[in-house]
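Notebook entry, structure prediction.
Reason for the run: the old model in the group folder had no record of what sequence produced it. Starting over properly, with the input documented here first.
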Amino acid sequence: MVALGLALGLVMPLILWVRRSAGVDFSFASYIDNSMVLQKEPAGAVIWGYGIAGATVTVTVGQAQETVMKKVTRVKADSNTWMVVLDPMKPGGPFEVMAEQTIGRMNFTLRVHDVLFGDVWLCSGQSNMEMTVSQIFNATREMSDTAAYQSVRILSVSLVQAEQELEDLAGLDLPWSKPTSENLGHGNFQYTSAVCWLFGRYLYDTLQYPLGLVSSSWGGTPIEAWSSQRSLKACGISKQGFIPPDSLGGPSKHSVLWNAMIHPLRTMALKGMIWYQGESNTNYNMDLYNCTFPALIEDWRQAFHHGSQGQTERFFPFGFVQLSSYLSNTTSGDGFPQIRWHQTADFGFAPNVRMPNTFMAVAMDLGDRNSPFGSIHPRDKQTVAYRLHLGARAVAYGEKHLTFQGPLPEKMEHLVDKGLLNLTYYQKIHVQRQDNKIFEDLFRPLLVIYSSSGPGIIVDLMLQ
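New structure, fully documented this time:
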């Protein structure tokens, strides 16, 4: 908490200085800053801030001394805020965004530079989303691979909790920035999410236009802390339950992270979100996760759609990571399998009818028993991010004939007399031999797997 207090102590004076430099009570919202990425067409980006009630605010977007567009609004008396929705813009930049407040004969001006238009993705969850690039495999090489990705901009929200919904962020650990080895690997679980960064980097390789990545994560937190009271009520959760103290490293009180770290972002026009969370629910409201997770997705979609004046799609793409394997110290180790199942709303795959327009990255095969951060924190975030980006390309960007899901069974037969389990898959698959104890016969599309050592053999299924 000392480090958190220090971080906020450094950030808040900066925000206050920016506001005072433009004039009394006139400022942009906390996350509108130099080097930011605004959502491109077909959405219109949202620009907002604070001003003097009744004043006129003119927002101008310019490039190379030419005015691209101009929007005029007034400061609301009840909230002292102003907001404009820009015309949809093609991807590119850089641009300058200027806001001018006029009241009587007084004029105050704000400017932000090096603004790009592209796709903005929000990344949230607990510690596996919070892990930085310095904590993953091949960290040195990954942190140095930034020169080709200067149009992928990153922002990190400070760790803050609140009892009530905040209208703006209380602080930023990292304001909008170009990627560097320093801000990608700023210590453990600080600043920039490795999964978020790698996801954006892989997407950029395909899209070749600017991307904005917003990290808002806190390790050791249950989904209830990220859920609004509305979504919890929809799942019949009205009271705070008991959570074993050794299972958490962050705040667990209901809605406190939604209030402080997600709700203030709802005015931001987004392309989509990715989520990596669930570990802290393996022993807290585990049986309700098949409700709380779909309810969170629905609630966030509704909040961001309305908060952005309809610019964020009502059913925007939502990707998530199915939990990896974990060496548990407890005798009962069924929490992770249960959460994995509940992460799909008990369908076993995504998207599905309860979770439309979602995509899932499976990580069960990426266990890391030797991770210095504990096996609960596997270091192979490259594969996780790559699988997420495949899902985004298929679901969010409509790329056809792209395999982004593992093989799903169409039919299962238990041949008791032969001691076999026949699985028929709808995709062609290839089985890799793990050791000499496993035997397999491969047909297309019929797969027969058996072992002399009994049931429960895990093999690696690789798509051809």
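Summary: Residues 1-23, 438-464 have pLDDT under 50 and may be disordered.
The old model has been moved to the deprecated folder.
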